[in-house]
Structures are given as C-alpha cells and as structure tokens.
C-alpha cells in the first residue's frame, strides 16, 4: 500500500456495552518467531538479525498502552507497511494471523492497567496444576471437571490480592521515587491539559486532567548531554512534551513511521486522573510499568510530591540509606574495595526556593 494514500482502518471503538475481549498472549506471538516447523515463523525470515529486529518491534507494539488505543490500527498499518518491504513472506502470514481477523488483541491497549497482555503467570502454574489436579492424566471432560473442581475447592483463590496498594510498594521503588524527587526536575517541568482520553477498552473516552512529564530515560539523556540545570531541562523538555501531547490531540497522518511513533510515545509519560477504585495512587500513568502493574515511580512520586501519600518512615532514605540491595550498582574493584560507579549525569541543585510549587492539578 502507498504511504499516506490509504486511510488507516478505524480503531475498534469501545461502546460501553462490550464486557470482554478475545485476547491473544503477546509472549506467544513473539515466541512463534523463534519456532521452527510448520507452526513457527523462523524459516520464513531472510536472516536471524532481521528476525530479532522483528521480535523487538513486536515487543514494543505489545506495550502500546490503553490511552493510545485509538492509535492501534495506525501502528499496525505502519508496521505492516515497513515489514512487507523487508520480510514479505513473514508479513503475508503475520498480517492474516495477528493484524487482521480474530487474534488481534495482543497489546496492553486491549487491557485495563494492571491486567496482563500475556498468560505467563498461568503458564508458570501449569506444572503445579498437572501435578496436583490431574496427575498428568488425559481425562475425559466429565472426569477432568470432577478433578478440577476438587482441586479448586482446596485453593481459595478469593484470598488472592492485587499488589497495588501503597503498603505493597517495595523498598527499591520507594528509594527510586525519593531519589527522582530529590535529584531531578521531572516533576517540576510539566504541562497540564484537560483531554479526552481512552482509559479502558470497555468504556467510551472521557475527559481527564492529564499531566505530561519527561520519562526517566529522556531526562537522563538530556541531563548527561546538556547538564541538569532547571532552565536546560525546561528548554529540552518542551518539544518532547509537545510531541507526546500531539499523540492525543494531533492528526494521525502526521506520524509516518514507527520510529516517529515510538519517539513521541517513549520520550514522555502522561499521568491521567482516571484510576480504578482501590488503586494505589491517585493518578494512572502511560508508562509500561503502570500498564503492567498498576503502579509506577512516576505516579507514586507525583502523589508524594503533592502530599497525597506519605513516605513510610521505615522506607525513608534518610533513615534506611540510599543503596539498593539488589541490582548491579556496586562493583568489586581491584584490591577488594567497593566503590560506587560514577553517576552518568550530574545531580542538579535543588529548585530555587522562590518558585512556588504549582497547584495540584488533580485537586
Ligand atoms: Zn509511570
């Protein structure tokens, strides 16, 4: 198809009457690329390198968040256009199977935040289930149902909890939230807008207060290249935040490649005021963490900054220190001494006291 000529197919419109979607596990979609034989795609690729790139692209697309759901059809279209040129055999089959037809719901855009776009959790329990419930026997439906119900009775799933309450937030996350608030201007250099956004595949779009802020990655990139002064961050943040905002307000034809789309989408986060009742934080976020776990550094830091969540004393870095237990921040040096790696970017000074904090946009 010629670029720019064909209008993107219409995105699936949530009607408010739909209660479920037929979902496809995104990890399975990606794994099929490695698989040989008739079911797999491996032999259709022209090179291993190209296959890995294709898989990486699938991963990025699978993380397309719910607020970008109206973009899904356009993203699929750009993907199809680009890869039909590079891997025609792969795309011929892939389009039919996962871009059109029944198995198209394999992105986080097809789920509300906190719900997975894959069934890895279930797969992990597969062995236990076979050990305990069916004893690895192939059973007739009637026999299986009896065994299954017997097993279910012993496993009170009603006791399961979503780990989304503030008290479930782990020490590492509390640390990084406090460091972000102290060492960066991410939560000071923001843009607030009232926008109509898609927050669920099951409900029509709604007006919400939306706050745009730099993603950690783009903040790091700016600070390490140009320095961490507030004015510098502000200057470089402006076009990045505007590009992200345009994804929600601008014309879709403006984006003509997947690269453009990913750049606009990954450069900044958008906090939005619509959350599930009982969520840990008062705002949701477009970042992958929030879409996957219904909590993230950005939304938690925002609530801490605006006094909506108190840092528990036993999680306060002034009390517990700054080191992270896990992760490779400490490296053994010659002579056995342990030293920290140099930070990649300089820590900017605290914001001048004269600047009054902006009013809480969700107030
Ligand atoms: Zn976030």
UniProtKB/TrEMBL annotation:
Location of the region described as Disordered in the Swiss-Prot/TrEMBL record: 109-128, 323-363
Bias-annotated ranges (Pro residues): 349-363
Protein name: Uncharacterized protein
UniProt organism field: Pelagomonas calceolata
């Amino acid at each position: 198809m010629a670029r720019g000529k064909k209008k993107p197919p219409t995105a699936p419109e949530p009607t408010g009457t739909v209660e479920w979607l037929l979902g496809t596990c995104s990890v399975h979609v990606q794994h099929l690329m490695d698989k040989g034989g008739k079911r797999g795609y491996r032999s259709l690729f022209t090179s291993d390198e190209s296959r890995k790139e294709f898989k990486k692209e699938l991963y990025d697309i699978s993380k397309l968040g719910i607020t970008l759901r109206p973009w899904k059809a356009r993203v699929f279209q750009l993907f199809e256009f680009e890869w039909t040129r590079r891997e025609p055999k792969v795309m011929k089959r892939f389009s039919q199977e996962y871009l059109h037809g029944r198995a198209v719901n394999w992105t986080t855009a097809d789920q509300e935040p906190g719900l997975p776009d894959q069934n890895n959790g279930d797969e992990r329990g597969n062995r236990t289930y076979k050990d305990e419930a069916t004893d690895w026997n192939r059973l007739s439906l009637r026999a299986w149902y009896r065994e299954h119900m017997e097993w279910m009775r012993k496993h009170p799933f009603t006791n399961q909890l979503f780990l989304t309450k503030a008290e479930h937030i782990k020490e590492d996350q509390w640390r990084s939230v406090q460091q972000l608030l102290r060492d960066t201007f991410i939560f000071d250099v923001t843009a607030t807008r009232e926008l109509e956004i898609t927050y669920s595949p099951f409900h029509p779009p709604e007006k919400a207060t939306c706050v745009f802020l730099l993603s950690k990655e783009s903040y790091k990139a700016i600070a390490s290249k140009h320095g961490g002064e507030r004015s510098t961050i502000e200057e470089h943040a402006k076009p990045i935040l505007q590009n992200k905002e345009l994804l929600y307000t601008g014309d879709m034809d403006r984006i003509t490649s997947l690269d453009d789309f990913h750049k606009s989408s990954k450069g900044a986060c958008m906090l939005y005021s619509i959350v599930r009742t009982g969520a840990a934080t008062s705002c949701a976020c477009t970042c992958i963490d929030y879409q996957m776990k219904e909590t993230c550094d950005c939304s938690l830091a925002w609530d801490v900054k605006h006094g909506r969540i108190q840092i528990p004393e036993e999680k306060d870095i002034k009390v517990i220190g700054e080191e992270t237990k896990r992760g490779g921040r400490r490296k053994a040096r010659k002579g056995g001494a342990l030293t920290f790696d140099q930070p990649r970017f300089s820590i900017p000074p605290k914001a001048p006291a004269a600047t009054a904090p902006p009013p809480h946009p969700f107030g």
